[in-house]
Amino acid sequence: MPNQFVVPQFLDVESKIIGPITARQFLIMLGVLLVEFVIYRVFLNILLVLLFGVPVLGIGLLFSFAKVNGRPFHFIVLNFIQTFRKPHLRIWDKTLSDADIRTSMQKVEEEVVAPKVRKAPLERSRLNELTLVVNTGGVYESDENL
After folding, report:
1. Confidence at 124, pLDDT banded by 50, 70, 90
2. Residue 129 lies in a domain
3. In sequence order, what are the residues at sequence separation of 6 or more whose Cβ sits closer than 8 angstroms to the Cβ of residue 77?
């Protein structure tokens, strides 16, 4: 009977560390809470803390818990940034003329003359000696080797 192997399933499901929260969500929220604390320590005014802290908290919740088409929101933002970094219009810079293209497409055939390799002719057959060496397990040695 052939060996059976366990095939891993649910590879796209992140493991939960604290209740329903994954490690990625926990780290994002930890960073957001750190930024919130810095905002609180810098401004010390409740109106300014609310003015700057609430949007940061909203963005943090969006990045940690929101999903678009089953993918985390930060992947969508990264794809959006990569899309705008690429050029929108691609222009073919045709600097070569048709004659230049034709000449570059022509194959130049050069004859490569390979030197003829000649083997030295065998003076006599060594097949009998090799058979004896194989049959005796390497014990037999020819007279020429001594």
Report:
1. low
2. no
3. 63
What is the arithmetic mean of pLDDT over 22-50?
93
Could you tell me if residue 127 is inside a domain? no
Structural domain boundaries, residue 24: 16-85
Backbone angles phi, psi at 21, to 5 degrees: -95, 130
Give the distance, in angstroms, between the CA of residue 145 and the centroid of all CA atoms in the same chain.
Answer: 57
Give the tokens for residue 36: 């919130």
For residues 36-60, one letter each, b for 16 or more C-beta atoms within 10 angstroms of the residue's C-beta and e for the rest, the string is beebeeeeeeeeebeebbeeebeeb
Q: Cα separation of 133 and 125, whole Å?
A: 14
> Is position 44 within any domain?
yes
For the chain, the domain total comes to 1
63 within a domain of the structure (yes/no): yes
DSSP string, 54-96: HHHHHHHHHHHH-EETTEEHHHHHHHHHHHHHS-S-------S
- For 86-106, the pLDDT digits (tens) are 877 777 766 777 888 888 788
Asked if the model's pLDDT at residue 85 lies above 60, the reply is yes
Q: What is the pLDDT of residue 133?
A: 83
User: pLDDT above 90 covers what percent of the chain?
Assistant: 38
